[in-house]
Amino acid sequence: MKEVFKLIVSSFANLRSKFSNKMNTYIGRSYILNTYTLELVARVKLCCVMLDLQCDALLCEMFKIFLKTIDDLHLGHVFYAMMKIMTLVLEESDDIPPKMLSLLLHYVRKDSKVPPRSRRLAEKVLFICARKLKTVLTEAVKSSAVPLDKYSKIVASICKSSDIKEKTEPGALLYSNSKDVLRLPLDDSSVNAATSSENEEKTSVQALPATDGTK
Question: Residue 25 gets which letter from DSSP?
Answer without folding.
Answer: E
